[in-house]
Amino acid sequence: MKIRKANINDLDLYFEWANDDVTRANSINPEKIKYENHVKWFKNKINDNDSFLYIVSENDNHIGQIRFELKDDGYYHIDYSVDVKMRGMGYGKKILELAMNELKNDIPGKAILIALILEYNLPSLKTFRGYGFKEVGSVDINHRKYIKLIFEI
Predict the structure, then answer these.
(1) Which residues of the chain have pLDDT under 50?
(2) Nearest CA to 30 among 144, 138, 147?
(3) Bridge partners, residue 4, by sequence
């Protein structure tokens, strides 16, 4: 498996992944994303020094994406998804590991990573817990409960 930073050529791939039904259902904002909004968002994120977007692939097949965003709270918040054709094959933990190693190279010093996972998104909870993320509570967003997990790199 290999990882690389996302670039403008990945705009449509990210859009496809972001609007996948399961991805939307597990997102803080479950509404479908309009293409014109995605284009503006994506261009901003790939040029933002506090955002790190990566694509993971294997044998020329795109496996998924992961994004780290430095928020006002001083933590890097994580968002990731696995391509619908690759789900259930154990790629989540591998994507997380590759991306965290890549992020260490892209930022100076240590960082605390935060993941907010919908309480019934058991595959993602298993991925983060399996990697060593620690549960530190929960938050209610839009009448849904998210488990908050942290990890320091």
Answers:
(1) none
(2) 144
(3) 55
CA 42, CA 47: separation in Å to the nearest integer?
Answer: 9
Q: In the prediction, which pLDDT does 128 show?
A: 92
**Identity of the amino acid at 27:** S
Q: What is the DSSP annotation of 50-101?
A: TEEEEEEEETTEEEEEEEEEE-TTSSEEEEEEE-GGGTTSSHHHHHHHHHHH
Number of CB atoms found within 10 A of residue 81's CB: 23
Per-residue model confidence (pLDDT) at position 119:
92
Interatomic CA distance for residues 138 and 141, integer angstroms: 10
> From CA 38, how far away is CA 56, in angstroms rounded?
20
61-71, pLDDT tens digit by residue? 999 999 999 99
